[in-house]
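User: Structure please.
Assistant: Input sequence and predicted structure:
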Amino acid sequence: MAEEAKNGGNAALATPGHGADGAAVGTAVISPDAVQNPGLPPHRERVTDVDPKKEKRAERVVYTLFYLSVLGSIGAVLAYMFFPIEDGRLEAIRMQTMFVGVGMTLALLAIGIGAVHWAKALMADHESVDERHPVPSSEETRKASGEIFAIADKESGFSRRTLVRNSLLGALIAFPLPGITLLRSLAPQDQDPVVLLKHTMWDTGVHLARDLGGASVGEKIRAADVTIGSVFHVVPANLDEATNVLDEKAKAIVLLMRLDPKDLHPSPGREDWAYDGIVAYSKVCTHVGCPVALYEQHTHHLLCPCHQSQFDVSHEAKVIFGPAKRPLPQLPIEVDGEGYLVAKSDFEEPVGPSFWERLK
């Protein structure tokens, strides 16, 4: 009682006592009424709530941004059309990449900025509290959902602000168009893809050369320069003779590796496709065509960084993990009289994604 009186008659606010050694004993108990709910701060009206002119200006900014998004989407499509890359010219590729990217960036940024400005300047911003309710909702709550949507529509002004609404709808419709347009470049339009991808610039006697990037062809490769564990990025030495260098390179790029000959396990008929442990495989993943460029020397595995397909080089690049469905095509190789590596023939199957083969 004395302790209670000492604390103003409220035992719930008693502080911990102390034992003989000075250590705290017990814990304080806080009354549920000790802390008052501060409530919500006073509502601050925005300038668009009190000034109709500024509200109208904000509305103009929002629908202007949405119309800019439409222009960006259309501009990206036009850039794709006006800067064709089928002929492989680097200048056209650079221009298309830049203008398509600028158009799609404008389309996405304008939608995002416009939506944020709409929410911050025009939509209702009165604070409200939604009480948690059991799951599932009551029948009355479910029936009231339609009313909630109607209130949200009224607060956002979606139906009332026709220019904002229509410009947003136009921006959302136009924004996917550049991506849909770009899908056209994923497949040839006027040729059978199986025939197109089955024949590359590799042929009997074509030398293997270093890939220097872009359309540049490096020096021819000697078998003696390929050591065990090394990897060479290879293109045909006659690549610069192609009409469309980049398209031909995309089909003909090869990874060259050397293993201990006893680690190779060729299937019947392919025993002479390698030379003294040196093997060459297409660099184009058979899943969706990404470049396979990561080689693990100790496991003899090739890894595609896009979707983690893995291929076992020691067993004819068969698939051991991931979504790819068939091995990487192997390029038969040998050496010429001067010790340079040359192709024995072209690939005997189409390079790249497996779905091309389903057309035949």
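The radius of gyration is 35 Å.
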